[in-house]
Amino acid sequence: xxxxxxxxxxxxxxxxxxxxxxxxxxxxxxxxxxxxxxxxxxxxxxxxxxxxxxxxxxxxxxxxxxxxxxxxxxxxxxxxxxxxxxxxxxxxxxxxxxxxxxxxxxxxxxxxxxxxxxxxxxxxxxxxxxxxxxxxxxxxxxxxxxxxxxxxxxxxxxxxxxxxxxxxxxxxxxxxxxxxxxxxxxxxxxxxxxxxxxxxxxx
Length: 203
Fold this sequence. Notes:
The protein is α/β, with parallel strands linked by helices and about 200 residues long. The chain has helices spanning about 10-20, 45-60, 95-105, 175, 180-185, 185-195, 200, and strands at about 5, 25-30, 65-75, 115-125, 130-145, 160.
């Protein structure tokens, strides 16, 4: 069975990636199997650069083919913030809820019509020797609620309403559930595009 290393320590993101890749019948390996730390510094100026850095590092450490993603929320009213800093927005010591509330505070005076945003996901597949096998990027357009709703998902999901549900702003990604999120989300779109290439890359 073909193996693919997944370059993330985020358990909720790993669960999402595993769910979306499961139909391919690939054996998925995770960084905790390495026996050494996998803690890449995400210091690149864009999602693609961070995905490439994580994928090449994991491929070199594991000696196998590695997939990494970098993703985040880009808010138009904030000139694209939090962007690549989405998982670290507001500085150290904050959890997902703290970062979400920090973002809502910044958007306090922004009217509904201008609360447009998008989730972006960059994927990179790499082989040992810093060889990039493929890279791609997808986005999911939406609008941001003024307060969180729903208990599913993670990160900024409780305030993000995809455009397909913009007429019912109660339907955040944290309400819609995994099946709908997988169909509409940035990561779901990117992984569906990638699955067309993966069998050949892993052959």
